[in-house]
Amino acid sequence: YRSDYGKQSQKWLLGRVYDTTSSESTRDDIDIAEFHHSWGQHSIIAKIPGSHSKGTVIISAHQDSTNMLPFWGAPGADDDGSGSVTILEAYRVLLATGFKPKNDIEFHWYSAEEGGLLGSQAVAAEYKRQNATVLAQIQFDMTAFVKKGTREEVGVITDFVDSNVVKFVKQLIDAYLDIPYVETKCGYACSDHASWTKNGYPSSFAIESSFENSNHAIHSTSE
Questions:
Q1: pTM to 2 decimals?
Q2: How far is the C-alpha of 193 from the C-alpha of 197, rounded, in Å?
Q3: Would strands 203-207 and 154-157 be described as parallel, antiparallel, or unpaired?
Q4: In this model, does residue 70 exceed pLDDT 90?
Q5: Which among 106, 141, 153, 162 is annotated as catalytic?
Q6: Where are the alpha helices (DSSP H) in 130-188?
């Protein structure tokens, strides 16, 4: 996230958000903005205004990547290129179908998750400072990998989250997916949902599998 590549990838992603918006929607009230950070790779926020909004629903992923070995490449295909593209596609589909939400919906692509949730911490703290009403937040971090010999499933994280939002996420999976969910834990504040929990907002986190079956090739050139 401090590298020139991190800055370039953020600008590329911002361009894709703009392109998706212009190609899939005729609305003129969608707001796309960079949330600036001192390290140079900025977070991205796209807002679809609600018709009778009582607050904001946040759908998020992180755009940065890392390698455990200094100066080696960090492709980040699963962690978290997969989540970033997952929510970009969700954004595209909502626009293409003319979805009109009651509450504001924001799509967030955070910078510097791998540096210690730095981007999301800054965003969540600013929302708290402004007394923003966040109704719910869900993080998508690692959504593409299925371990050989295991079933395809959705991991629903149950620690550092809000139990009511988690319950709703399970209901959504049952209603819309053909694959089951499995409850699982990180054991620590492992992704950007924890920044919202820390600031008193209801959060959740969906991952590609149970935590123990998730991709172990992350943070390497093999990812």
A1: 0.97
A2: 6
A3: antiparallel
A4: no
A5: 141
A6: 163-176
* 62: annotated active-site residue: yes
Cβ-count burial of 205 within 10 angstroms (0-12 exposed, 13-18 middle, 19+ buried)?
buried
Catalytic-labelled residue, pool 64, 78, 79, 104: 79
Helix, strand, coil distribution of the chain in percent, nearest 5: 35, 20, 45
Give me the amino acid identity at 163.
Answer: S
Q: Give yes or no for residue 33 having a pLDDT over 90.
A: yes
Q: What does 201-223 look like in DSSP terms, one character per residue?
A: --EEEEESS-GGGS-TTTTSTT-
Closest CA to 123 of 136, 135, 110: 110
What is the identity of the amino acid at 19?
D
- Report strand pairing: 56-62 vs 104-110: parallel
Pairing status of strand 181-184 against strand 134-140: unpaired
pLDDT at position 38, please? 98
Of 100, 109, 76, 82, nearest in space to 192 by CA: 109
The reply to whether 113 belongs to the active site is: yes
Catalytic residue, chosen from 108, 193, 219, 223, is 219
**Residue among 43, 46, 20, 44 at smallest CA distance from 32:** 46
Greatest CA separation for the chain? 49
Element (H, E) at 107: strand 104-110
Q: Report yes or no: 119 and 43 within 8 Å, Cβ to Cβ.
A: yes
- Which two structure tokens, joined as six digits, stand for 107? 């799509």
Q: Which residues pair with 137 in a beta bridge?
A: 58, 203
| Cα(30)–Cα(21) distance, integer angstroms | 8
pLDDT at 71 over 90: no
Cβ–Cβ < 8 Å for 33, 45? yes
